[in-house]
Structures
1.
Amino acid sequence: MKAGIAPRVLCDQVKSTAAWLWDDERAKPVTDALGRIEKAEAARARGGLAYVEFLFTAHHASVATFVPTDVDARIRHHAWVTMETEEEIAQAADAVDRVAAWDVHVVSARVVDSAWGPLSGHNGEWLAVRAGALGRAATLGFETLAERLTSAIDAELERERAIFDEAVKGASASRVLAIATTIAHNLGDLSRVVEGWPGKPDLAERRRRFIRLGHTEGKPRTSFEVAGALNLAITANENHRFLALRAPRALRTSRAILLPIGPWFDAWGEAVARALEDRDRAEVVTALLELHLAQPAQLGCLRALAGIHRVTRGGLEVHLPDLPARIRKEALRGKVREAIDLPRERFDARIQKRWEAERDRLGLA
C-alpha cells in the first residue's frame, strides 16, 4: 500500500479550506495536532499511529467545509488493513475517540444540539471509521476488541435514535428534518463500510446488525426507517455535496459562512452577502445558479439566492454584469424569481406542511 498523502500537504489543504481555525482559540486542540507534522511524517511510511491520528484530525477539521481533504478511504479502510496486532488497532481506536470528542461546533455549521449532545455528520464519519476498525479486528479474531468497537457503534446509534424520537414528538419541521437528514447520512456512512467487509461468516451477524438501517421495503417501522423515509421524501435533494461551491474561494475565509443543513439557506445567503465584497459575492451567485440549473428541484440554493438578494443593495441585479453569459439570463426569472418573491416565513410554512403531511402518512401524529 502507498504511504499516503504527506502530512505537510494535508495540513496545507486544511489551511486552504479552513485557515480561520488558526485564529479560533476553541480550535487549539485541532491546530496543535495539525502542527505535529514531523512526528506524523516519521510514522507515515509504516502507517504508524501518529500518522493515522493526523489523518483523523485533518478529516475532523475539513469534512464540513467546502473542500474536504480526501482521506475517507484511507481512514475507513486502508489504514486498518495494514494493522496486524490487537494493540495497533486498539491504539488507533483510542485516537478515533480522542478526535471524535473535540467540539464539532468549531468546524461545522451542520450541527443540531440535543439533550444527548450534538448531532452532526461528523458522527457518521466516526461510525464509518469505527466500522473499518471493527471489520479488521473481527477478521483477525480479536473478539474482545471487536466487541468494544461494536458497543461503541451501538451506543452512538442508540444516542441518535433517542435524539430522533424526541424530535418527532415536537412540532418543529426544521428540527426533525435536520435530524432525520443527518441520521440518514450517518447510517449511510456506516452501511457503506459494513458492505465492504470481508465475506467471513464471523462478520455475518454484525453485518446484518449495521447494514441499511435507514432503508425499508415496506412501511417504515423503526425510528431509523422513519428518519430515512422523511429524508427521502423531503430533504434528500437538499444536502448533496454542493461541488459548485468549491470554486468561490471567498467562502473559505470564515467559520461564519460554513454551509448549514439544507434547505434552510436564507440566513446563510444573508451572511454571505454581508461578509463578501461584490466580486466575491458574484462568484457565489454564479455557483448557486449553476447548482440550480444542475438540480432544478433543489430548494436550498434558491433560498440562498433569495437571502443574498434580500440584503444586497440593488439585489441580484447588481451582479448581472459579473455573471457568465450562459447563466446571466437565469438570475432573475423562473424559480429564482419565485424564490426571491417568496418570504422566508412562507417558505418555512411550506416545509412545515410537507413535514406534517409525511408525519400523518407515516402515522407519527
2.
Amino acid sequence: MNQLILTRSDARKIILHAAGLCKKAQFGKGYEAVYKLIDHLGFVQIDANYVVERAHHHAIATRVPDYKPEWLDELQADGRIFEFFMADSGYIPMHHYRFSLPVKKAFQEKRKPLTPAERNLMQSVLDRVEREGPLMLKDIDNDREVASSGWWDWRPSKIALERLYFGGDLMVTRNNFHKVYDLPINILPDDVDTTMPTPEEFARYIIMHTIQCLGIAQVKEMNWRARFVKNHLVKQELPKMVQEGKLLQVAVEGIKNPHYMLPKYKKKKIELAGDVFILSPFDILNSFRHRLKDFFDFDYQIECFVPAPKRKYGYFALPIIIGDTFVARMDSKADRKKKILTIHNLHFEPVKLSKTALNKIHNAIQDFARFNDCNEITLTKTNNKQFTIS
C-alpha cells in the first residue's frame, strides 16, 4: 500500500482546521461554541501571565468572537469541564475525566517519600476541606517559617494543597484566578466515569486527542502529552490504530519522520478564509516550536523566558497569522486602569502584504484592544513604515 504524501500547503490546512483557525467562528458563537471548542481541542492551556488577557481566555476569544470570560466559569460550575495538569495546566472536557487518573496515579508514585510532618499536614488540610468545604490558600494561616526566596518557594500548606490536587484527592475551581480546592465528590457530576483506564486505553486516548487537536502529529508530540505516565504504550498502540483504520500514516514533503492524521482529512476539502488571528503564545497552534518551523517556516519563542538582553521581539510577543502565513509578532501590554493597549513592538515578517491585508491586521488589533477592555491603542515601534494605528 502506497503511503499518502502531503504537500506542506495541504498539511498547513489540516493543522489550521484542527486548531479551529480556518475562519472566524469555526465552532460558531455563544456559550455552546465555547464548549464545542474545548471538547474538540480536548485541552485549553491555562497560564498566569496577565500582560494581556490570560492565555485560556485569549485562545477561546480568538475562535469564539462573542466570547465572555464568565462562560468558562459557568461551564465548570455546570460540570462540563474541569481543570487539571495533564501535559500542562488546562481546562478539559468532563467526559475525559477518567483519563486524568493515570496521570494522578503517576504523580503519587513519583513524588519523594513524605516525612511524617508532611503527611500529617496533608491529612489535616484534607480533613479541613471535608469539614468546612472549599478552601483557598488565604484561608489557611501563614505557616512559613522563613522568608520566601522566590516564586516557586511555596509555604508548607500550599505544597500540601498542590500534592492533594495533583494526586487526585482534591480538585480545583477558580475565583478571580485564585485556586479554590474542594473534594472531587463536590465537583464531579454523578454520572461521570471514574474507572481507571487500562494502559492501552490511556495510550489510545493520548494518540487520538493529540492528533485531533494538532491535525497532523508525530510520535514525539504524543509522547510529550503522555510524559508523566511511566512506560506508557503510545508507541505500541499507534501502529495498531493505523492497522485498524482509525488513523493514517502520512509523509509530508520536506519534513522528516512519519506523521499521522485522521482518515477524514484524506478527502476533506479545506478552504481558508484568510482571516487574521492574533494568537496567544500558549495557543494550541504554538504548542511545539519545531512544528512552526517545519510547517510554517516560522521561528517562534516565548521571550518572557529569555533574559531581557537576549530578547529579539519583546517580553510577550503574540504571533499574528493570516490564512496559513505568520505575518507579524506583536509585543503589547494592556493597561486596564487607563484602558490603553500599548504595542511596544509590532514586528512584521519578511512577507509581502497588500493594503487589504494591512487593513485586516489593523482591524484585528482594534478587536484585540476591545477584548482587553482597552479603548485606546499606542504603537511605539514597528519595522513597517506603511502601518499606522488609529
